[in-house]
Amino acid sequence: MKRIGCDYTISKDISFFMEAENINSSDLAKKIKVSRRAIDELLNSDVIKDEVCDKLYSFFYKKKYRINLIKEELLKERYENVLFSGLKDKHDFGDGSYLVDNYNQALSSVNTIDNSSVCSFKYSLNGLRIKEFKCNLEWVLSICFYRGYIDEYKNHELIKRLVKEVEEADVIIAPANNNRILHIMNRFADGEINIDTVLNCLSAFNLGREYVFKSDRAIAKLESIERYYLCILEKEDSKLKNSELSFQMDTQLKLMQREYRTGMYVEEVLK
Fold this sequence. Notes:
By secondary structure, the chain is of the alpha+beta class. 51% of the residues lie in helices and 13% in strands.
């Protein structure tokens, strides 16, 4: 992913919390067992010290303050178009800057990575060439191709058309995915399950939308807003939700395999 800078606003978060709890920096320092100087340094500089910041944001989290989610709501009220990114390299549609339309999905993509963060962006699509995918066969085939699952079909006319449309676009908009969805698509590419099973399974889960800004002129229309600190507790909660979602998807897939036994397999779709 092409890197786009964005900055933390740690000092604003601390100020908000102290005001909400009616405490001062000395009180806060005692509660999280750090020096007052450490809190004052964060208030005055926004320089990240992970040991202090994780204690700080974990304390917020234990007190039921979901600061990052609240910020998402406020941003969507303030701006018409807002996206989020975990700044993790992806390859669903080749090179580009990958973002999603909701904070939790961005968080879920980086919740196993040390020192990871999420950034928010304003954006405009004016004057850009857009290729939009729905939850359909073309979406599945495109991701399977770019992920390297169906290299043997690279010269098929349908694949060549889809690749041409993707490469000519400035921005790709498609259903968001996760590792479990990619696993299901891979099973389709391996000939284990048919396309009706795949689409009826995946359409049951709405993870939001993925935006891929592929061209320089598209990336120029992204404007960073803020970088969000992710404490260990928040990432652990996100991993638990991912695990629960994976179980639901596995169950849905088993049900769809029983329901849709006569759909077309990859070799029939691309014969």
